[in-house]
Amino acid sequence: MGKPLDTPLIDALNNFISAGRIPMHMPGHKQGKGFDARFKDNLLEFDLTELPGLDNFHRPEGAISESMDITAKVFGARKSFFLVNGSTSGIHAAFLSCFKRGDEVLVNRNCHISVIHALMLFGIKPVFVMPEYDEEYNLALPSRLVSWKRALDEHPDVKGALVTTPDYYGICQPLAELAGLLHANGKILIVDEAHGAHFAFSGKFPETALEQGADICIQSFHKTLNALTQAAVLHVGSERVNVEKLRRAISMITTTSPSYIIMASMEYARKVAVEEGAGRYDELINHLEKMKTRLSGMENLRVVPDVIGKLKRDPTRIVIDTSLTNITGYELYDMLYNEYRIAAEMCDYCHVVFIATIADTPDDLYKVTHALLKIDRSLGKTRKKSFDFPFKTGKCSIPELYDFLDSSVKVGLTDAEGMTSAELVTPYPPGIPVLCPGEVITRDHIKYLDRLIRSGAEINGLSTDEKGQRTIRVVKTYSKEEGGFQ
Ligand SMILES: Cc1ncc(COP(=O)(O)O)c(C=O)c1O
To answer: What start-end ranges are recorded for coiled-coil regions in this protein (predicted)?
Structure first.
């Protein structure tokens, strides 16, 4: 008998699930708890392809088309498209269909990497609008309306804006006035609402992007609803969007073997949210309110409030702040994971983020509360950690796609002055990219990043070489005249 094939991934998954941790992360169905037995039992048999009666994702005329129409009605959209490769594919399709190579678009600088990739793939130029910063909780806040206005005044030829709301921490950018401003100037508003698919199902949530005038919004159903990973929907909100062009764009960037189980899970999530949402979201919000009240008694850790200034925050996104304590968010995450078998969604230098959905049980929320109270009692206080963000402009020239793909090399961060970044370099907090691909690296950037590294911050977009030194990928441009990559 030959040697049995190793199965490291299946082993890792089995190990993970056998630990039985409380899943305070996506996907929103919480390891199947959100699915009823009938749906769960059929899931593998639902893994089919374009067979008679099952319609065709790329030419929907039957069940898929009908299901998307019901989805549009529920969300108040003119048209909804299923996506089987996450919000990422919706963002790409929106950019591909709404803009042309060389167009300029307003983009909030703390956008998701999928937006930066869309800019690069389709040769669209960003006019970055910088976020604000909340010093109390060390969180990036949405760009103010005046910042969008100023950017529009300075770049009257932009074709539209990409706005991210809510962000990972649940903080919402108010959209109604911004939508009015953009529309009055003939511009289109695309909203990355990846974290807000549940907003449509309770009056206790912030307004949806469609309610506030978005022309297109993209939602990851898998993040907050009972849907499988990669399930997402793109909604069209207005007649400003060329729906046929958008349909072609989605088709171009989607596999020819779209997953029926992902699509079925979107339908399932929508049905549960419509039929049971009002009651179950009320229940969830009540449980979370009790949880927050109990946690407000913590001496050291803090719960980030549901309103920051005048900005609304998603009440189901529980964010714990460690900035007054002697531990980092990373340490709190590890304590919860290792000592209390609680897996949070993510952490940064001074926050831990939990995603709560209707698939969570009151018992699980109780255990999370209990763990946080217990950890809090074991902590000491420290001087408040704070992070200033020194860069105001965010000017950037997104590199040519093939310069980016072909010629990026890693250099030591301290040697990178004057070179062009090929990375989105984002320390959390503040979650505002210090460098975007295409941005020229200055001494100030290096000094700022160095200070954060020394203070223990984790920085997305930097690597560490064998000598333990931080490195950054940089773009080298191709020049025929000068004989190759420079
Ligand atoms: C703000 C934001 N937009 C878009 C995405 C991409 O979503 P998906 O993973 O569904 O492609 C993410 C993923 O985390 C995100 O946080």
So the answer is: none
Number of structural domains found in the chain: 3
- For 277-296, the pLDDT digits (tens) are 989 999 999 999 999 999 99
Determine the Cα–Cα distance for residues 418 and 430; give it in Å rounded to an integer.
24
In a domain, 9, yes or no: no
Q: Is the CB of 80 under 6 A from ligand 1?
A: no
Q: How far is the CA of 361 from the centre of ligand 1 (A)?
A: 25
Domain presence at residue 21: no
Kindly give the pairing relationship between strand 317-321 and strand 302-303: antiparallel
CATH of the domain at 356: 3.90.1150.10
Q: Is the CB of 165 under 6 A from ligand 1?
A: no
Statement to judge: residues 263 and 216 lie in one domain: yes
pLDDT of residue 486: 54
Sign of the torsion formed by the C-alpha atoms of 99, 104, 106 and 110: positive
Tens digits of residue pLDDT in 47-60: 999 999 999 999 99
Between the CA of 194 and the centroid of ligand 1 the distance, in Å, is: 5
| Percentage helix, strand, coil for the chain under 3-state DSSP, each rounded to 5 | 35, 20, 45
Q: Does residue 484 belong to any structural domain of this protein? A: no
In terms of Cβ atoms closer than 10 Å to its own Cβ (0-12, 13-18, 19+), residue 240 is middle
Q: Residue 81's domain is classified under what CATH number?
A: 3.40.640.10
**Separation of CA 52 and ligand 1 centre (Å):** 33
Q: Is 224 in the pocket of ligand 1 (CB under 6 A)?
A: no
Q: Which domain holds residue 328?
A: 277-378
Q: pLDDT category, 468, cuts 50, 70, 90?
A: confident
Residues 264 and 192 placed together within one structural domain of the fold: yes
**Helix 145-154 × helix 176-184 angle, to 10°:** 20
Can you tell me the distance from the alpha carbon of 218 to that of 235, in angstroms, rounded to the nearest whole number?
6
Same domain (yes/no): 293, 181: no
Domain shared by 341 and 299, yes or no: yes
Q: Position 32: which residue type?
A: G
Query: Would you say residue 5 lies in a domain?
Result: no
Using a 6 Å cutoff on CB, does residue 202 contact ligand 1?
no
**Taking each helix axis from N to C terminus, what angle separates 63-75 and 260-295, rounded to the nearest 10 degrees?**
30
For residues 62 and 209, state if they share a domain.
yes
Between the CA of 348 and the centroid of ligand 1 the distance, in Å, is 17
88 lines ligand 1 (CB under 6 A): yes
pLDDT tens per residue, range 398-423: 878 887 787 678 999 999 998 888 88
Question: Do 336 and 257 belong to one domain?
Answer: no
From 81, 85, 87, mutation site for ligand 1 pocket: most ligand atoms within 8 A of C-beta: 87
